[in-house]
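User: Fold this; tokens only.

Assistant: Input:
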Amino acid sequence: MSEGNDSTDPLEFFRKMWNPMSFPMPGMFQPTMDPEEVDKKIFELQAVENWLKMNLSFVQMTVKTLEMQRAALQSLKDSAKGAPRQP
């Protein structure tokens, strides 16, 4: 579904995806010359990297927990099949 975006620029979607807040970002041909600005950007990107790593570990932990739950349920199901019925 369209969000009502009638832009004629075909690359606007990608620009918004990479820079959703529309902050001015230096391009490949216009590098930042201020070392403080570069340090600030490095710090921001490291914060994003740490946030992504934390979320990745949460997802991995959730997957492992669900795998253990599936194994436990399968084990209960298998033991119920193999147990003789009592009158």
